[in-house]
């Protein structure tokens, strides 16, 4: 099947649509079926939502289902911190101590890189490392600056976003996911030494964890947050420019939203990964300068990690081609 024919007739009404079936393609397939054809077998449960910036059309698949956010929730934490900056309660150049008792393990972790006391980072650098490296220690410090998980959720509610909930620090999430008494590098190293199966648990589905409603979002709600950030509802223009700049420097997940983009495409994003969870949310710039926001969630993955990334990349490319090649349908 010609790839373009799968997407060019996907015209959704200006209203947000839910469920697996929207418009029909030229082959009589629903958008949901087209997505399933592209991503089937690459990932487990899939949900996504996308909208051109300034457009009215929302394209979504399982958009109103909840998914474990993993580290994509760091976008909400960053936004809540920047809201306090805008209100004059914090400043980006304000130095914040990072005490050793807040160290949390991670892939590119501050805790492993600087194991000794004496770390101070500005608010700007806390957000930078939290987003670009997905560092867990700076995330928990940032959440504390935001006023805690409940304060982040309240910030979202004040924006009118009801289907994202932030409940736990990354320390608590890791402890719950791996059933550990702590989440420092030393805690995790000792746990793996005692139970080597924990290494495989990093990429295996965890049904009990995913069934826990805490720290979940719907793709449509995350899209709503992305649009509020870009549109100035969630923060000042200065904070928006700062956060989008940070997200454009994200190093994790090069095979996800970025994976099938044409060379040179600007992508500002934040990934999320844990066990069978592989997510990516952010903004993609089209060749003509138009942009769209997109949130892709995949939970319950039993496929190889590369396939999970590919599923996200396929969906992102499908939306890239749709918004770029079918602009008339979006007006």
Q: Can you give a write-up of this model?
A:
The structure is a single chain. This protein is α+β, with helices and mostly antiparallel strands. It folds into two domains: 3-65 and 213-330, DD-peptidase/beta-lactamase superfamily (Beta-lactamase); 71-207, DD-peptidase/beta-lactamase superfamily (Beta-lactamase), CATH 3.40.710. Helices cover 41% and strands 15% of the residues. It contains 14 helices and nine strands. The strands form three sheets. It has a five-stranded antiparallel sheet with strand order 2-1-9-8-7, sandwiched between helices. A two-stranded antiparallel sheet has the order 3-6. It has a two-stranded antiparallel sheet with strand order 4-5. The chain is globular, with a radius of gyration of 19 Å.
CATH superfamily of the largest domain: DD-peptidase/beta-lactamase superfamily
Q: Into how many domains do the coordinates divide?
A: 2
How widely separated are the two ends? 26 Å
CATH architecture of the largest domain: 3-Layer(aba) Sandwich
Identify the CATH class of the largest domain: Alpha Beta
Helical fraction equals 40-55%
Query: Tell me about the biggest sheet?
Result: 5 strands, antiparallel
- What is the H-and-E element order? HHEEEHEHEHHHHHHHEHHEEEH
**Which descriptor suits the 3D outline?**
globular
């Amino acid at each position: 099947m010609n790839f373009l024919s799968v997407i060019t007739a996907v015209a959704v009404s200006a209203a947000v649509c839910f469920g697996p079936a929207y418009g029909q393609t030229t082959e009589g397939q629903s958008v949901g079926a087209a997505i399933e054809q592209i991503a089937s077998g690459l990932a487990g449960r899939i949900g996504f939502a996308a909208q051109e910036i300034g457009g009215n059309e929302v394209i979504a698949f399982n958009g109103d289902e909840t998914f474990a956010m993993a580290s994509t929730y760091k976008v909400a934490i960053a936004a809540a911190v920047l809201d306090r900056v805008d209100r004059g309660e914090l400043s980006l150049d304000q130095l914040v101590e990072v005490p050793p008792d807040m160290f949390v393990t991670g892939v590119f972790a501050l805790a492993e890189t600087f194991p000794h006391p004496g770390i101070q980072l500005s608010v700007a650098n806390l957000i930078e490392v939290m987003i670009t490296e997905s560092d867990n220690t700076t995330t928990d410090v940032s959440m504390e600056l935001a006023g805690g998980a409940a304060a982040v959720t309240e910030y979202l509610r004040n924006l009118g976003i009801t289907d994202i909930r932030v409940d736990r620090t990354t320390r608590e999430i890791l402890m719950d996911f791996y059933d550990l008494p702590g989440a420092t590098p030393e805690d995790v190293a000792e746990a793996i030494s005692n139970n080597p199966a924990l290494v495989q648990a990093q990429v295996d589905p965890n049904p009990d964890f995913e069934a826990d409603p805490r720290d979940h979002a719907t793709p449509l709600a995350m899209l709503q947050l992305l649009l509020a950030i870009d549109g100035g509802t969630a923060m000042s223009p200065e904070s928006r420019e700062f956060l989008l700049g940070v997200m454009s420097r994200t190093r994790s997940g090069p095979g996800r939203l970025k994976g099938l983009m044409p060379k040179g495409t600007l992508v500002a994003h934040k990934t999320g990964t844990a066990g069978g969870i592989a997510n990516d949310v952010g903004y993609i710039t089209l060749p003509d300068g138009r942009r769209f926001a997109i949130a892709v969630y995949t939970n319950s993955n039993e496929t190889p990690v590369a396939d999970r990334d590919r599923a996200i990349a396929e969906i992102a490319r499908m939306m890239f081609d749709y918004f770029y090649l079918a602009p008339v349908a979006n007006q």
